[in-house]
Design a protein that fits this description.
The chain has 95 residues and is an alpha+beta fold. Helix content is 42%, strand content 28%. The protein has two helices and five strands; from the N terminus they run E-E-H-E-E-H-E.
């Protein structure tokens, strides 16, 4: 199960989806793509400063005082994660 914790000051994602074997897990791939896109988008499209740590099965993103554009990117990420959770509720949980 992948658990996504969205806070006012950041996002933590941890766990493994367990939908399919490693390398073929579309749920894991979707969450990974959304997460990497969020980090890249905030760094490339805004002047916001974020800190993040990535390790196997875990991503921890911290931010403060996001701009309007940064907040919009986080909201977009959240919409995508919600869609994955709705489609695969046994594999993704937002807490």
């Amino acid at each position: 199960m992948i658990e996504v914790n969205v806070r006012l000051d950041g996002i933590t994602i941890e766990g493994h989806a367990g939908y399919a074997e490693a390398g073929k897990d579309i749920v894991c791939a979707g969450v990974t793509a959304l997460t990497e896109n969020l980090i890249d988008s905030i760094e490339s499209l805004t002047k916001d400063t974020i800190q993040y740590e990535i390790s196997p099965g875990r991503v921890d993103i911290h931010y403060k005082d996001l701009s309007g554009a940064g907040k919009l990117l986080v909201d977009s990420f959240f919409l995508g994660i919600c869609s994955i959770e709705q489609g695969f509720p046994e594999h993704v949980k937002i807490i």
